[in-house]
Amino acid sequence: MLVAISIVTASRTCVTHDSSFTPDAALVVSWKNISQSCYPVKETVVVNGTTPGPELRIMEGKTYWIRVYNNMANQNLTMHWHGLSQALSPFSDGTPLASQWPIPPLHFFDYEINVPVGMAGTYFYHSHVGFQAISAAGPLIVEEQDKTTIPYHYDKEKIVFLQDVFTKNDSAVVKGLLGTPLSWSGETAMVLMNGKGGGSANGTACNASLGIIDVEPGKTYRLRFIGGTALTFASLGIEDHNDLKVIEADGSYTKPLDITYLQIATGQRYSLLLTTKAHPEKETYTIQLESRERPTLTRGFAVLRYSTSKKPSSVEQKFYPPVTVPLTLPNTTLDFLDYSLSSLHYEHYPNPEEVTRRVTITVHQSVLSGGPTIWVQNSYPWQDTFPQEPYLVSLYKSDSAAFPSMERALQNNGIDPITRAFPAQIGEVLEVIVQNTGADSGGQDVHPFHQHGQHYWDLGSGNGTYDHIANDALWESKTKEGVYPPVRDTSMLYRYRSTANIGNGTAQGWRAWRYRVEQPGVWMVHCHILQHMVMGMQTLWVTGNSSEVLTLKGGEGDDTGVQGLEGYLMYGGSVMGNETHAPQVVHFKDNLGSDAWTDEQP
């Protein structure tokens, strides 16, 4: 469900988070030497000592304070709340190039999280710095305030959190991606489910122990699949359990849709209903996952285990990859769920006549002369070298002088080439088309594109270039059948030909979104493949005019131009805490922490 958020400024207060303040949860991010799957021990970024990090479970309609400690002595950190709009707390989106300075080493930052009623669903948290999100991530579940509003019955739920493993460490990956010439990260060595996994990578067997999903016979389970991978676009199925129903995508309920397998990219989330066998033929069934759209195949497994009446053993039972692969999973389905998965709530769906503007984001891989390989959008990358500070911070410091020009944007296919930002006005109904093209080398790739700030109505995808007249006609016929575009925040831009025979710059493959611009702020829109993000495949959108975005300007005598927010405008400012300094934090909502959790939290 798309939820409009009205920005209320009257409740803002500046509070010192000293020893009298108790955050609702704490995430401690640090280095740890661990072994994942079959691979040797290496230094890995972990959250509260594990990867994935602990599950956080919050309730819509309440405000939470989550303290994130950066216990790494040599790297910055942020935490992004993937899929949640942070319009109410503009410095808490966790995007270091857009909305906040990163947390310096050996400091902490208190994130204010408020989820409007209507956004219950499946989300996750992850770092937004470098390659850290491959391991510094964990599940985030938003529960309904009113349980009677849950549209589907299920007895229990389970989380299946997907992650990639690479043989190189994070710093080596980033150095290679930014190097001249490009040194690729290597392909995924294993895909983990809930932190465990074995199988094979490029034909090499990996006999590591598998993750276990415990179920009981004759029950209906909500399986929450979270695409926390860095690179892997996966096809997934469950042995002898083909009756699956999609009921949620990216935090929004859908009409039930029967599927036999799941296709999931990094950044995406799905809830599936699975009714277990009343009389299972055996104790365990294999969950099988395979990578798609890569030059090599990585295959991982987990176990669906039925409970038995046997007395539990004091020794933990372990399972290993099957000798024979049980499933034949399909190759890439280019239109997976497009034009068939329907939003459950579509009262606010904007019709084609309401569209005020169409903006095309053209993505392209470019090899700079004598320089690195980069990804650009409308000819511009967005990397650590540009901008030099978070864009929202720059807007406050410059008193909006650096605000993107709509006039320049309208002359340049939606982007202001001076600020490299896409401006949009509150109330506009936009159609955003993400256009795939052939690279300088003639190849092409797939891209799961993610939008911060607010969700969109996903209008589907296709080959070639977008024809809005034809697509509108298709949706007109679909809506007559009761099928409306799903509301999403991450959807797939496909490729339609092999990597070797696409002309440089040839437009081939599109994905279209529609949404009413409602959330003032500075928001990233980017491919969620971590390697591509490091290489520049990110854009920035500024939604609203200067008075709507810069609502925190202060009064007379405040030389920073904002009331009580000077600590947000400098790296390592007073909003960052450490062993000797209690942070001075603005509360954008009336909540002092420690009273919001409904369940026990870490």
Task: Sum this structure up briefly.
With 602 residues, this protein is mostly beta strands. Helix content is 7%, strand content 35%.
Your description of this structure?
The strands form 7 sheets. Strands 12, 13, 14, 16, 19, 21 and 22 form a 7-stranded mixed sheet that branches. A 6-stranded mixed sheet has the order 11-10-15-20-17-18, with no helix packed on it. Strands 24-23-26-31-28-29 form a 6-stranded mixed sheet, with no helix packed on it. The protein is globular, with a radius of gyration of 23 Å. The relative contact order is 0.17. It has 6 helices and 34 strands. With 602 residues, the protein is mainly beta. The longest helix is centred in the C-terminal third of the chain and has 13 residues. Strand 23 and strand 24 form a beta hairpin.
